[in-house]
Amino acid sequence: MNERLEIFPTERQKLYEKFADRLIKASNLSRQIVSFQANKEEPIYRWFKYKEGFSSTLVQYFLTKFSDKPGKLLDPFAGVGTTLFAGQSLGWDSYGIEILPVGIFVMETRDALHNIDPADLGRSLQNLWSEYDKFERTTLHLNHISITKDAFPEDTERALNRFLSYCEHVPQKEIRTLLRFAAFSILEEISYTRKDGQYLRWDYRSKRDLAGKPFNKGRILSFEQALRIKLSQISADLVPQSDSLFETPRNNGHNYPSIKIIDGSCLQELPAFENDFFDFIVTSPPYCNRYDYTRTYALELVFLGCDSDKVRNLRQELLSCTVENKEKVEQLRQTYTLLGKSSTFDSVLRVYDSSLAMSEVNYILSELNKLDRLNNANIPRMVRNYFLEMCFAIYEMARVTKRGGYCVMVNDNVRYGGEEIPVDLILSEFAEGLGFNTQNIFVLPRGKGNSSQQMGNYGRTEIRKCVYLWKKE
Length: 473
Ligand SMILES: C[S@@+](CC[C@H](N)C(=O)[O-])C[C@H]1O[C@@H](n2cnc3c(N)ncnc32)[C@H](O)[C@@H]1O
Fold this sequence. Notes:
Elements: H1 10-19, E1 23-25, H2 31-34, H3 56-66, E2 72-75, H4 82-89, E3 93-98, H5 101-111, H6 118-134, H7 154-168, H8 173-184, H9 187-190, E4 193-196, E5 199-202, H10 223-238, E6 259-263, H11 266-269, E7 278-283, H12 293-296, H13 298-303, H14 308-317, H15 329-338, H16 342-353, H17 356-370, H18 379-400, E8 401-412, E9 414-416, E10 419-421, H19 423-433, E11 436-443, H20 452-458, E12 465-472
Parallel strand pairs: 1-11, 2-3, 2-7, 3-6, 7-8
Antiparallel strand pairs: 4-5, 8-12, 9-10, 11-12
The site of S-adenosylmethionine has 22 residues, from strand 3 and helix 11.
């Protein structure tokens, strides 16, 4: 092997050629629509910024373009439930599986809105500040873990604990939850942290020992300032006033089909569904990009009562997309064995093993690792396991989809050690081996570079960001 590793990307090139006629530049799918950006001004969606999400417009676009009537809809990586709520507003019976308590809390709060009478809410909000000012029995609600310690100015943390103590005394459960949700939604704003890339970035004013160039996140709102803004946004959205292109649940979801929220890993939960159950899937799994949801959302997880063991376990249970993730293959084998489906387990593994492009990627990454050309020695393991777990998830998605039904998936390609990993092509190849037919891979007009370290080494080149459309034949 030369010092400078040169491997002609034969198998990836062949796979590209196989799908070339289905790779389409999609000028109507802007990055705005495919990301959370387009939700930023949408009533209710805008309350909590989940920047890993996609927009309700994207979901409604595919549902209306590729089906003539509502049916059963699934998002196995539901996040904060964009698929579920956008589908619900069009009459779809929507199911979502999500592993992170952050998404579960957002979905459950939103789902409970139809039990809230806006007049009751108005009264509670009117009385809130005078009651809160008088409230003195503060107990400790935030039990920090090492990565969140000292995240808030002391006054802010006191006010937050006091408010959460006050919430415990609000008699109506749904209003209590909504008030807690309002506090949950401002944690980043009132803290010394900012969600930036893979980790939380810390402001120079925090008590932490910080290495590197000092970071100034700008004005940090007090708890009361931020909460007042959030509550006025919430109450404005609960009064019907939307002129948006697509109907939002004006009556807070009442009269629409209910949504089903499943708290768990889709790798464990999907096998429990019967065959041919869903008409449509719209989803976006975590990307294979080392992004750690448990670190980015550490403040929110602590707010929801997660301790360090829980956070560590969650990190392992999430689809492998960080260098810390260990293999789940034995866990998967056990799941299928217990269901009496050992042969299914073997056949899914065969689909993974028979992808020559996958083998090529695994081989190249392990060679690059030997040459010390990767930023982290666990990248080959992460990539191998990411695709292996996605192979099982796609098998299940194909199995639970009815014939003629669709799966829409948003995902980004990635690059490690200068080698492009065509996530779109490899996952579509798996999908074809598991019962789907790739109709199109819509390529967004502008791709993106990869991490800053890699751009330093290889210069910024475009890598594809895509929306795949698979049909069960
Ligand atoms: C790209 S985000 C999806 C965001 C979603 N489309 C939205 O608009 O809110 C991927 C989600 O998958 C979740 N996730 C990761 N591993 C999972 C697993 N094994 N089972 C279920 N959800 C998982 C993450 O917690 C994250 O919320």
